[in-house]
Amino acid sequence: MGIGENAMYVSMCRVTLRIPLSASLKDKRQVVRSLLAKLRNEFAVSAAEVDRQDMWQIAVLGLAYVSGERGHAQEVLDHAVRYIEESRPDVEITDVVMDTATMEE
After folding, report:
1. Alpha-carbon distance 22 to 74, whole Å?
2. Which of 13, 15, 50, 74 has fewest C-beta within 10 Å?
3. Contact of 69 with 10, CB cutoff 8 Å
């Protein structure tokens, strides 16, 4: 059996954002909650703030998507990142790290 038959792919993405208009943790939470909800609803990804929770203007989001096809899993996360870039002028993406893990039966 080769790779791809009965395989599961998990694409993961760590997105670092700068939120220049945030003046408090409350401001940041409002932006992050809204963005996480939209990403979950639009792209069916798992999404959470994973680091820098105590910094007002920096947010680090973790996104993940599971698929039976490697390309599809990566494509979904690519679209999610592109969504952030194109629809959220209130945030700036400063770093993106993506990886895909394979689990075979």
Report:
1. 30
2. 50
3. no
